[in-house]
Amino acid sequence: MKKRSPQFSPQLSPQFSQGQQNQVPFVSVEHMTKIILAQGIETFLSELTGYIEDDYKRWMLFDKTPRVASHSQEGVVELMPTSDGEIYSFKYVNGHPKNSKKGLQTVTAFGALSDVGSGYPVLLSEMTILTALRTAATSALAAKHLVLGGEEKTGSSLTMAIIGNGAQSEFQALGFRAVLGIEKLRLYDIDGTATDKCADNLEKLGFQIVRCNSVEDVVLGADIITTVTADKQNATILTDNMVGAGVYINAVGGDCPGKTELHRDILLRADIFAEYLPQTRIEGEIQQLDADHPVTELWEIIQGKSDWKKGRKNVVLFDSVGFAIEDFSALRYVKDLLLKTDHFQLLDMIAEPEDPRNLYGLLQRSHQSAA
Fold first, then answer.
1. Does residue 265 carry a catalytic annotation?
2. For 125-166, what is each residue's pLDDT tens digit?
3. Residue 207 pLDDT > 60, yes or no?
4. Interval 46-62 mean pLDDT
């Protein structure tokens, strides 16, 4: 028997009673922004990191599969499902790097939770904003264990470089401050207006910012390097000579086949960590390596099942591509927040005939009401 998810109850609020099971809570973009602001974004990120960590501690209970992807020359559309035996979740997400030139988002997403026992959905939610938050929270969680060793101590003396200052960059900075206490940032993007946007947003939040003019410049003195670029290609954002001993790399941008950011030589001298190897070997930086190249899954670190620091190499790399369990955790967290907020609406989604065997009767009843 699988362990029930922490705090889970299909009944989300007094409005969601046995007589209203056709009413499914929906969190819109507006609702999500209000929920986040009510919590405070760094509190939201810190608590979300805790939810993801809790679910990684239950790793073996989850159904796990690489995401189902439909690729085109323009981008990718993906479904990301999982279940712990009590709750089922899925996320729809796309990645279209050229969208920004059309004034569109590169990534959009929505997702759902359902009760495995009945199959009924219990939550629908926007996940464009939520995915940005859960990506940052996962990055911060990995760094907590791989940089700080899982200990509750500050990383305020550390400096992080962020290469790629688009939609994800501010969330990464806030996640690392919320969980590790990092305040010092170095920023670079090939588009200087993106760096100005990111710097302006983060300076207002009290970060110490250095704007840089090249990749070589931005990595100088950085303890942590976050790469979060968008182009769908095998790019070489970082070369081996740019990465000194003792550096931690949070590689976020390489997340689909044919899309990487790091030169292969960096991987060969790094201790590498990933979320779910069958997916990361297809999509992550390690798609450049042999299929048997040693990589440790993050859950092994969180559960204390790896003594990787013995004989460690001089670079540590978290090869982040995003995994369905993190979306599960994010939706579970939002669902729990709905217990104390009215920032959602109920949707009439589930057909509910008087006789469950007489679905056609709903049409007859509707016709009679219209007559």
1. no
2. 999 999 999 999 999 999 999 998 777 667 889 999 999 999
3. yes
4. 98
279 vs 74: which has the higher pLDDT: 279
Give the chain's length: 371
Catalytic residue among 255, 271, 319, 327: 255
With b for 16 or more beta-carbon neighbours within 10 A and e for fewer, the 39-61 pattern comes to bebeebbbbbbebbbbbbebbeb
Strand partners, 82: 89
Q: Give 245-279 pLDDT, tens digit per residue.
A: 999 999 999 888 889 999 999 999 999 999 999 99
Average of per-residue pLDDT across 12-34? 74
End-to-end CA distance of the chain: 51
Query: Running DSSP on this structure, what letter comes out for residue 159?
Result: E
- Alpha helix (H) ranges present in 243-291? 264-268, 277-283
Name the burial class of residue 147, with classes exposed (0-12), middle (13-18) and buried (19+) by CB atoms within 10 angstroms of its CB.
buried
pTM for the model stands at 0.92
In sequence order, the 6+-apart residues with CB closer than 8 A to the CB of 259 are 231, 232, 233, 234, 235, 253, 283
